[in-house]
Amino acid sequence: MKLLNEILGTKYPIIQGGMANIATGEFAAACSNAGALGLIGAGGMRDADTLRENIRRCKALTDQPFGVNIMLMHPLADEFAKIVVEEGVQVVTTGAGNPGKYIQMWKEAGIKVIPVVAAAVLAKHLEPLGVDAIIAEGTESGGHVGEMTTMALVPQVVDAVNVPVIAAGGIADGRQLAAAFALGACGAQVGTCLLVSEECPIHENYKAALLRAKDSDTIVTGRIGGTPVRVLKNRMSREYVRQEKAGADKMELEKYTLGSLRRAVFEGDTATGSLMAGQVAGMLHEVRPVAAILEELWESGRQRMAALSELC
Ligand SMILES: Cc1cc2nc3c(=O)[nH]c(=O)nc-3n(C[C@H](O)[C@H](O)[C@H](O)COP(=O)(O)O)c2cc1C
């Protein structure tokens, strides 16, 4: 099995997950310079030029491979899809849907296409379209989530397709990274553990909330309404879920989430902001440079794999 770093040309077999409103060109470049594949998150961008500028800034700051994450339900997805071609981006990951209609254009431009899936059935559907790899993302992860856990999902995606599979969701230390390889993945995508990096541009209140979080401090809003998102528990998310269970309609619930990610990221509003985070938030204890987080993740993963092989 080829490791992800051999496929992507990175130092580590690790992808920094695209994070809407957070993963700027600067942040992606920092992650690429530190040995992962940095991804610019196009998800929260309000216009196409913003993506173009972020790509150009990233290019100016790193000579390492980087990519762009496109959320397919974004109204500008068609434009974003063209910009990555025009700007010579090397890797595209996609979230929330089926990128089928863009794949031919991206492959002709030599772009590596790596969709995120939350169930094996979508992976099976995408493989014949020519994707280069699949990210299997479990419900432990921060942000938009599916139902299946990483532990159950990854081996079933590995069995369903012949392309390399990358595990995402619930990976923040070497034990979990080793587990990802044990499940058949060729590497990992992480998001939550990088939120508490020095380079991550979220408000310091958001970072402080992550450092305070315990293992059970996340909650999924929108499980009933159809757009499940994992966030830290706070006044907004608790109230959202309470109203949701009480049968509130979608429009009624939207008033809680409208602008809430920006409130968390830029204003540090920890009471009514949407503090997207995965279940590993309880494992974060300090703010460190991205390079230190990634090096420890990889080195402790290697040590764990070596220790496990001695058991046999
Ligand atoms: C704050 C936050 C925002 C995210 N936004 C996106 C996004 O815009 N697009 C996407 O494909 N995934 C998004 N994700 C998921 C990550 O790319 C990654 O798959 C996930 O964080 C991995 O699980 P972990 O949080 O347990 O590390 C987001 C995750 C977080 C924590």
Helix-strand blueprint:
Elements (H helix, E strand, L loop, with lengths): L3 H5 L5 E3 L8 H9 L4 E4 L6 H14 L4 E6 L5 H10 L4 E5 L4 H9 L3 E6 L2 H7 L7 E4 L5 E2 L5 H11 L4 E4 L5 H9 L4 E4 L1 H4 L8 H9 L5 E4 L7 E4 L2 H11 L4 H8 L2 H8 L22 H21 L2
Parallel strand pairs: 1-9, 2-3, 3-4, 4-5, 5-6, 6-8, 8-9
Antiparallel strand pairs: 7-11, 10-11
Bound molecules: flavin mononucleotide.
Mean pLDDT: 96
The fraction of residues in strands falls at 5-15%
- Give the helices and strands as they follow along the chain: HEHEHEHEHEHEEHEHEHHEEHHHH
Number of strands: 11
Keywords: Flavoprotein, FMN, Oxidoreductase
InterPro entries: Aldolase_TIM, NMO
GO molecular function, one term: nitronate monooxygenase activity
Protein name: Probable nitronate monooxygenase
Give your account of this protein's structure.
- With 312 residues, this protein is of the alpha/beta class.
- 43% of the residues lie in helices and 15% in strands.
- The strands form 2 sheets. The protein has an 8-stranded parallel sheet with strand order 1-9-8-6-5-4-3-2.
- A hairpin with a 7-residue loop joins strand 10 and strand 11 (229-232).
- The protein is globular and about 50 Å long.
- The mean pLDDT is 96.
- Bound molecules: flavin mononucleotide (FMN).
- The site of flavin mononucleotide has 29 residues, from strand 3, strand 9 and helix 9.
- It comes from Faecalibacterium prausnitzii.
- This is Probable nitronate monooxygenase.
- InterPro entries: Aldolase_TIM, NMO.
- GO terms for molecular function: nitronate monooxygenase activity.
